[in-house]
Amino acid sequence: QVQLVESGGRLVQAGGSLRLSCTFSGGAFSTYIMGWFRQAPGKEREFVAHISEIGGIRYADSVKGRFTISRDNYKNTLSMQMNSLKSEDTAVYYCTATGSGNQYWGQGTQVTVSS
């Protein structure tokens, strides 16, 4: 069973930076599309970024140029560097793994950006 554990979320001032990490276990990490979603209070969960098995990357328009997603297939880790953070980036961030007809989710990590 795939398990995902996120870390790195905390309170940060607007304009600051954070790096989120997601540790993957229970499967073949390199065969999964890995991604990040987020959910702000009172809003639906939304796509942030994903990276394919071969490194293809896509971002939501709202984070392009500020967020960078990456993966380490040796350490089974997904990361996302978030720069120039805005108050609207405040949300719970979820790591996802998609593959073999399944999608798995982590428990989430809270990112709060104070203005």
Task: Jot down its keywords.
115 residues; mainly beta; seven-stranded mixed β-sheet; 55% strand; globular
Task: Write a structural description.
By secondary structure, the chain is an all-beta fold. 0% of the residues lie in helices and 55% in strands. The protein has no helices and eleven strands. The protein has strands at 3-7, 11-13, 18-25, 33-39, 46-51, 57-59, 67-72, 77-82, 91-99, 102-105, 109-114. The strands form two sheets. Strands 2, 4, 5, 6, 9, 10 and 11 form a seven-stranded mixed β-sheet that branches. A hairpin with a 2-residue loop joins strand 9 and strand 10. The N and C termini lie far apart (40 Å). The mean pLDDT is 97.
